Predict the 3D structure of the following.
Amino acid sequence: QVQLVESGGGLVQAGGSLRLSCIASGNILAIGTMGWYRQAPGRQRELVATVSRGGSTTYADSVKGRFTVSRDNTKNTVYLEMNSLKPEDTAVYYCNAISRTTYWGQGTQVTVSS
């Protein structure tokens, strides 16, 4: 079992920045890729960014150049640095970890005001 706890969400004005963190606990040695997803009201959950155990990253086109995903394996933590935030980035952001199964955090709200 793996537990994921996100933090760092909040309310920010357009153009601002936020940094999300997700700490993993439990059977962390079995974790491979970790990532961030988001879900806006009335929309499906969508991929934001992923980072492999070795540090390889992928990004949704909508966040490329603005968001940076990183991982500190010594702290069992994955980060999402979000810059130049837009109102359309408003969503609940979920941390994700892939092991033999897929684990999800409880989500953290990010609201970007115009």
Remarks:
- The chain has no helices and eleven strands.
